[in-house]
Design a protein that fits this description.
heterodimer, A: 435 residues, Cytochrome Bc1 Complex, Chain A, domain 1, five-stranded mixed β-sheet, B: 447 residues, alpha+beta, 11 strands, globular
């Protein structure tokens, strides 16, 4: 507790819509780790969310899948404990640790009781600082990854996704499955695991959110103990890549009754001043249950069970993309409807009525996201990675309210590009060929 | 057993302070509608949920899928609401809404700012008795549920095979019929079918209102009286008596090959008792049995013996959910290692089960599980909507509030002997369906 007094803590009271108060404290630990905290003492546990920017895009050439395999093997033995010993220790504490790998980040989601917080964090620390990566564990988890890779070869959704990203991003890390290939995963070694961990889990790319039964001082001490000894810095991040999507339809023949469709075009960066107007625009086009795409493709025509579109701002590129599934006999019609809607949207934009409705939806629904310690901890980390300040929680709805119809329609004109909207179709679609 | 590693772990099991369960209030309106309120004032949000005690297992013969189809059509409009207006209104008010159908219940819910609760009740009460739909609505929505079936079942050989094995598991009970329906029957479902089902079963005396979140129970009761109180009950609700299983005397074995299967797998389900009002002990023992056998991919008995010691499997698991009105199932799943044949894999699974029946419960594992179950009550408090769903489901299958609230204690009181007695009873191959799902290639079909 010697550093207790030097922890730097700033407190901000933030009111959510309808007066929910979320008190975000920014904590700088004596060891120099920054974290956001919401104290919530009514239930005796804490949710801790830790992320490192970089993710599987940092896989080295020829080593695709190394970050994914490493994250999946972190919990398979650490310090004195082998895989089973570690799981027994974790379960005896009723703690849970989840390790995940994504294109631009790796994440650790921990949940632990107040009454054994120190033991739980000591155990998590051993996984982060002293993972064993025993050959037996690496081989066993490798077998699981290879099983997933085999299954994805005959899963129409996975086939579509792989083809779509390959077309968009080619040889850039975004262009390939971050589980790796059968060949690359077979070649990964124990040493690769240690190296991958030191590459992706570094102090300079660390983001932390905590919510629950813990004080700022306790969190500061916890974080210095848990993360203070990680390497200072990681390798260079990948370069930017422009999505190479130039329109057309690619059909991947696959014998199954319903075709799976992914579609997309170039998007908008998260730090673009027009990101919020673009976000609102997409919400109307395909962002929720009452969107134009849902209305036209599902409600009016019954061509699909569900369709959505999303803004996908990667760290080094950006897309607007969407997906749906339709029976082979009607998928061509569904694609035509999507194309028409995209073109209509680009040409005429939103109506004032749509804007008003989507604003009341987005501003009202924002509070629904803050439903539990874990979800709030994830929001806190996401905001930090997006470069937002804690007061975004209170200003976000005002920012949405302030957007005018002209602003939205200007960004729609700039962003939506029906000529370059590209489709990948996996199935046996009738009347549809690659063009 | 090779449990020497356990010695490395300090066996200090946490005490875990007893969780103060969410405040629960319960009322019954004059028209028979039950009202349950769960308070959580941490966020100004409410979940408004209505549970009808009617599901896919209550469908007339030949009309499979009608309960689920009606759930879709419930969004089409009423005498006061145009088609789609309910969801649009929820959206306009910053909420989200959805619905789901099970064999035993059908539920509708909205999540929204707590001050919009009266509006939600007004609309939900309206569609309880005044649903309207056109032939066009029905025709288009039927295409939607057929695409839903495509997406959930027909495009996924694993789901198709589960549908087949489940149909074989139940010789007589409608739990063997898929919730979404058999395709050829779904294609024929009509507006009349939907209305017949609706008029018979959608009524306040067949419904439970569960409201969870930032609300005052007395206010919720007042609102419920205002909005749901005037809805007239259905006079002739029959008790939910479904055709029951005859004695199952013959083991069933099924194989399916599909070119879309890349990873062969073995499944086994055994008919198993469910939770009953005032009688949940056996179900609790089965739930703990499932956890000990295959609830954890590292430390469970099956995982230790089949994926660590002399590995025969990439993955192995066990599951059981006794929250149903009639007979449940106890399931096992195994994904064999690439060099292990289906026959050898199944033989290893059965040998491991037999060994478990001899070895009995590992007491350290048992204590760890009890600890986790106690902690899960603390973690559950953080998810008020999860609690609302749990209460809704359990009330809808006929459990009492007392049954629901005592369930964690019933689980804690299970002894190792109870677990082994349940295991000896449930693992009867005459009651079981074993399935091999394989690729359509020579290498996968070798078993």
């Amino acid at each position: 507790m010697k550093h207790l007094l030097s922890a730097i803590i700033a407190v901000l009271w933030l009111s959510l819509p309808a007066q929910a108060a979320v008190e975000v404290q920014t904590v700088e630990t004596p060891g120099g780790i920054n974290a956001w905290l919401v104290e919530e003492h009514s239930i005796p546990f804490t949710a801790l969310e830790i992320r490192f920017r970089g993710g599987t895009a940092l896989d080295r050439p020829g080593k695709r899948g190394e970050t994914n395999l490493m994250m999946a093997t972190l919990e398979e033995g650490a310090g004195e404990l082998d895989a089973q010993g570690f799981a027994e220790a974790r379960d005896a504490l009723a703690a849970s640790f989840k390790f995940d790998a994504y294109m631009d980040s790796v994440t650790i989601s921990a949940r632990f009781l107040t009454e054994n917080r120190e033991e739980a964090m000591a155990l998590l620390r051993s996984a982060l600082m002293e993972p064993r990566f025993d050959q037996e564990a690496v081989d066993r988890v490798r077998g699981q990854v290879q099983s997933i890779l085999r299954s994805s070869e005959t899963d129409p959704g996975d086939i579509a996704s792989k083809m779509f990203y390959k077309q968009a991003f080619g040889d850039h890390p975004y262009g390939s499955d971050d589980n790796g290939t059968a060949e690359s995963v077979a070649g990964l070694t124990r040493d690769d695991m240690f190296l991958a961990k030191d590459r992706v889990m570094t102090r300079d790319r660390l983001y932390v959110g905590a919510v629950g039964d813990i004080s700022a001082e306790e969190l500061a001490t916890l974080l210095d103990d848990l993360l203070g000894d990680l390497p200072e810095s990681g390798p260079e991040l990948p370069e930017r890549v422009e999505p190479a999507l130039s329109g057309g339809v690619t059909v991947v023949p696959f014998d199954t009754p319903q075709s799976v469709v992914m579609f997309g075009q170039k998007g908008i960066t998260r730090d673009d001043p027009d990101f919020i107007p673009a976000y609102i625009a997409n919400e109307v086009l395909g962002g929720h249950g009452e969107s134009r795409l849902m209305d036209e493709v599902r409600e009016k025509r019954g061509l699909t069970y569900g369709i959505g579109s999303y803004l996908v701002p990667f760290d080094h590129s950006e897309l607007v993309m969407g997906q749906f599934s339709s029976g082979n006999a009607v998928v061509a019609e569904a694609i035509d409807v999507v194309k028409d809607e995209w073109a209509k949207f680009a040409e005429t934009g939103l109506t004032a009525g749509e804007l008003e409705m989507v604003k009341t939806y987005l501003t009202g629904a924002y509070a629904l996201r803050f439903d539990g310690n874990g979800p709030i901890a994830r929001i806190l980390v996401g905001m930090q990675m997006d470069g937002l300040s804690p007061d975004y929680i209170t200003t976000r709805n005002d920012q949405i309210e302030a957007v005018t119809l002209d602003q939205i329609n200007a960004v729609i004109q700039r962003l939506y590009d029906p000529e370059n909207l590209s489709f990948v179709v996996v199935g046996s679609p009738e009347g549809l060929v690659t063009n | 057993m090779k449990y020497g590693l356990a010695a490395l772990v300090a066996l200090a099991f946490p005490v875990i302070s007893p969780a103060h369960a969410a405040e629960v209030s319960h009322y019954t309106l004059d028209n028979g509608m039950e009202v349950v309120v769960l308070e959580d004032h941490r966020a100004p949000v409410v979940a408004h949920t209505v549970w009808y005690k009617i599901g896919a297992a209550d469908e007339p013969a030949g009309k499979s899928g009608i309960a689920h189809f009606l759930e879709h059509l419930m969004f089409k409009g009423t005498d006061d609401l145009s088609s789609g207006e309910l969801s649009e209104t929820v959206t306009r008010n910053g909420g989200s809404d959805n619905a789901f159908t099970s064999w035993d219940y059908t539920a509708y819910y909205q999540r929204i700012a707590a001050d919009r609760l009266p509006l939600m009740m007004e609309m939900e009460a309206d569609r309880m008795r005044d649903l309207q739909m056109t032939e066009d609505d029905v025709k288009t929505e039927r295409q939607v549920i057929l695409e839903e079936r495509n997406q959930r079942i027909d495009n996924d050989p694993g789901a198709l095979f589960r549908e087949q094995t489940r149909a074989a598991q139940y010789l007589n009970h409608p739990y063997g019929i898929p919730i979404i329906g058999w395709r050829q029957e779904m294609e024929q479902l009509s507006r009349d079918d939907a209305f017949n089902f609706y008029h018979r079963y959608y009524a306040p005396n067949n419904a439970i209102l569960v409201v969870a979140g930032d609300v005052d129970p007395e206010e919720v009761l007042g609102l419920a009286k205002t909005y749901y109180g005037p809805v007239s009950p259905s006079p002739d609700l029959a008790p939910r008596l479904r055709p029951q299983e005859p004695p199952q005397l013959a083991e069933r074995r099924m194989t399916m090959s599909d070119p879309r299967v890349a990873q062969p797998s073995i499944s086994r389900t055994y008919l198993a008792p469910e939770r009953d009002p005032g009688d949940q002990e056996k179900a609790a023992a089965l739930q703990i049995l499932a956890e000990l056998l295959g609830g954890n991919s590292t430390t469970s008995y099956l995982a230790r013996n089949l994926t660590f010691t002399d590995p025969k499997a990439i993955y192995v698991g066990a599951y059981y959910d006794g929250t149903s009105i009639d007979d449940a199932t106890f399931g096992l799943i195994m994904v064999p290692s690439p060099d292990v044949s289906m026959e050898d894999a199944e033989a290893a699974l059965d040998a491991t089960l037999a060994q478990f029946l001899k070895d009995g419960v590992d007491l350290e594992e048992f204590e760890r599980l009890k600890t986790q179950l106690r902690a899960s009550r603390i973690y559950a408090e953080d998810n008020i909507e999860g609690l609302a769903r749990q209460y809704g489901q359990e009330l809808a299958i006929g459990l009492s509030l007392d049954d629901i609230e005592s369930w964690p204690d019933v689980l804690q009181e299970v002894t190792p002997d109870d677990v082994m007695a349940a295991a000896h009873e449930v693992f009867d191959r005459r009651h079981a369906v074993t399935g091999w799902l394989m690729p359509t290639t020579s290498e996968g079909a070798e078993g």
